[in-house]
Every structure is written in C-alpha cells, then in structure tokens.
Amino acid sequence: MAHKTELTGPDFASGIAMSDLSENSPLLGHAHGKAVVLIRQGAEVRALGATCSHYGGPLAKGLVVGATVRCPWHHACFDLRTGEALGAPALDPIACYELQRRGDRVIVGSRQSLAQENPPPKSPASVVIVGAGAAGAAATERLRRLGYRGPITLIGEEAPGPVDRPNLSKDYLAGSAPEEWVSLRTPEFYEQMDVELRIGDAAAELDPAHKTLGLKSGAALSYDALLLATGAEPLRLPLEGATLPHVFTLRTLADARSIIAAAKTARRAVIIGSSFIGLETAASLRTRGLDVDVVSRDALPLERVLGAQLGQFVQQLHEEHGVRFHVSTTPRAIRANAVELDDGGVLAADLIVLGVGVRPRVGLAESAGLTVADGIVVDSQFRTSAPGIWAAGDVARYPEPRLRTAVRIEHWVVAERQGQAAARDMVGLGAPFRDVPFFWSRHYDVRLAYVGHATAQDVIELTGSLPDRDATVVYRRAGKVLAVVTVGRDQQSLAIEAALEREDEPALEALLRA
C-alpha cells in the first residue's frame, strides 16, 4: 500500500547551509508544499522527492550508493541526478528539483522536467514481449524510457494486463487495498506509450528461424527482438478433490477475486502448503475473520528456505493471530466440506487454497527448440540459445555471478529487474546482470527482507532478537555469505545488498558484526 510522507523538517525553499548537510546522508525537509530530500556528495547537492514511487517508502531513511538513492522498504533505486527509476520495483521516477547557491546556502527551486533519452545504439525493427507479468511489463517501460521508438507488442493471457502480483496475497486479499491499486498500468497508459497491449490472445507457436510468433487466435506477429516472460504456473496436487470448486490457487487477479468472493460466505479455510504465498494468504484470510488451518509436509513452515529459527518465529507469529498448523503431514483427499489428512485427521473447510509451489512455463520455448533445463537457459544478458530471443523472470535460468552457477529465482523484484536488463540489451546497452536477488514477505505487521540467494547453506547465524523483531539471519556455505534476512533492520539490509553487489567481503563482514 502507498504511504504519504508528511511535510516536516527545514523549508528548503528558504535555503539551508551546506554545513548542515552530511555527506551521502539524505536530509528530509520540504519545498513548495512537497516533501524533499537533499543529498550532498562533496560540493554537489541533489534535491529529490522524498517518497519512493513504488509504495511510498521514506527515501530519507534510505541509502545512498554511488549516484543512486535506494528505498529502505523494497530496495527500489533512483538516479540522484535525474530522479529516474533505475531499479524495480519502482517504475516511475521521483521528482528532481533545481538548486540555487547563495554563498554557503542551498535553495530548492522548481521541479525539473525529466530529460528525454537519446536514441539508443540499436533499434530493433519491432519488439514482441510474451507475458505481461513483472518481467514483461518492466521491459516494456524500460524500452521506451531508453529512447526506443519502434513498435512494441505486449501479449498477456489474463485480464486486465499487468498487475501488482505481490499485492494479491497481501493487502488486496486482506481487504485493506482497493482493486484499483492492483493494476500496474491502465490500457490508456500503454496507448500513450504507443504500445499494443494484447490481452487474452495467448502465444501458441514460436518460429525462431523466421522470427514469427503465432497466437491462439490465428494471428501471426513478426519480430526483430522477442522477450519470453511467460512466468510460472501454480501446481495442483494429484489429489482426489483438488479440482472441486472451493479449491483455489493464487497467481492471478482472477484467482484473488475468486478467493475474496468465496471468503464472504466461508467460515473455515485450509491452506495446503506453508510457502510464502500460502502463509501470506493465511494472514490475509485471518484479517478477514476466517478460521485458518495450514497443512504442511514440513516440520516447520519455511524451514527449507529460512532455517529452523526463522521458521519457528513465523509459525509462532501466525499462531498468535489464531492460525492452526498441522505439520509433517499431507492431505489425502479433499471433500466438499473437509480436508482429510494422511495422519487420519479431518479439517473442516469450505475454502481451500493450494500454496504448493509453481513450475516455469517453458512449453512455448521447448517446442521452438530453445535450450530448456528447469527454465529457459539464458546467458548473463538474458539471451537465449536462439538469436533475437531473450527470456526473463520466473522462467529464466541465468548465471548468478556470486554463486557462479545457474539459478532460476521466483521473486517479483528479480523478475522486473531481469526484464529491464533484457530491454537494455535489446537496444545495445546491455551488460552482464549483477543485481543481487531481493524479495520481501509480510506477515501481519512483520516484514522479512531477504537479499542474496541460498539453497544449500551449511551454517545459519542469528544476531539480535526475533521476538523483539530486530534481527539478522545470515546464511553461509564454506564461510561465504550467500544470503541475509533482516527483520526490522532496513538500513542494514540495503547496506548488505550494496556490499554483495561489490563482492566486498570485508565490508560485508563488518556490517554483520555491527
């Protein structure tokens, strides 16, 4: 949900002394009725809007990294010189203000217009983007912001087009965010960008040799550059009753609408699977007043991802809000009003949500002869094995530079940033992708911030206090830091992300000791 930054601090329109500005430390104030941060770097000062354009995070509490400022909530990244949104999840720029110098004082003037990008080095004759999720939507906008003016077609299977998928299991499902907040962009936005948005006419056949894409309607599109951002689809268990009408998965806006409609008359919900999506759904349904049971084959929720201590903390957090857990068990069958467990238990249920994982949607790529191995295999610039075709997002298996191995990561921010990186490469501005994976998960009033990527750690270290919601959890293999989760330590999370980007191990270790 978006938040508004209150006007507080100095009036920068009246001026402030340079000596009151600390190096690389955002100072919150206001000018001309708007919240503004000033950032000093040597003799240079920048004046920017104080509110992140994603969910309204406070940039005064963010971190300056080089020529960027980063939001403490969800790690969006903005250019200090222009306000341009350089890194997702923010897609819109923040305001950038003119400055005047009068002796030792800095005075904030009027808002600057965002400069138009020069034409990029390369300009494909046409671009087709298959998939209107995080990666596809972000790539579309980045192409235009990079100055590409050629034809773009964005193809999405589900109405209404690009949506803020993380919100589907959080505020929107909980009833605390209106549906108009869920759509990332309106059809009119794409019209203004001169992008053809085709919704409901899915891609059916890809011919890399002739650079054509066939749609289910029978239409055929030619492309010079094509991005496969087909994402992933929820798994359904091979279980008796798994297709009954009161059994749902949660991936699309239509899924969320169906769950919300069912929740209006339901009293007992069962969540099968203790994944992030399953637990966030449990929290949202508890907020709506339903009784909620979670069935998990694991002894602790999220233990395989986060370890025992964090898993236990998350479980206790949910239990404090009335959620009941049934662990180390699996469902045997789903009935019209119950879930039968393999340990003999029976849970009353008139609403069931499956949160048991997803699989990458690789069928189109596979039938076209692209290299596929648990996702579409790409290089460090998201190029597939076929010339002129890129892949990004949940479907892409890419070389992670710090792990020095190929991975496929199912995170919203990662997907958006991969789409942006693929767009840069399409127009000749590409470089090896080095962004550190990041995701957040919220459970009631607790947010977990995860940077890095760990799948086979051998040591998990906890500092701080999880009960006090002030903690850091470090995942190592052979002594090397793979990933870090923070609770209530947003500044530290940003600093750790920056150290991981630089592969600056001494700085990273110093941050973890602080």
Structure notes:
With 514 residues, the protein is of the alpha/beta class. The chain has four domains: 16-111, Rieske Iron-sulfur Protein (3-layer Sandwich), CATH 2.102.10; 127-233 and 359-426, FAD/NAD(P)-binding domain (3-Layer(bba) Sandwich), CATH 3.50.50; 247-356, FAD/NAD(P)-binding domain (3-Layer(bba) Sandwich), CATH 3.50.50; 445-513, FAD/NAD-linked reductase, C-terminal dimerisation domain (Enolase-like, domain 1), CATH 3.30.390. It is 21% helix and 32% strand. Strands 1-10-9-4-3-2 form a six-stranded antiparallel beta sheet, with no helix packed on it. The longest helix has 15 residues, at 412-426. The protein is globular and about 80 Å long. The mean pLDDT is 95.
Can you give keywords for this protein?
514 residues; 12 helices; 4 domains; Rieske Iron-sulfur Protein; FAD/NAD(P)-binding domain; five-stranded parallel sheet; six-stranded antiparallel sheet
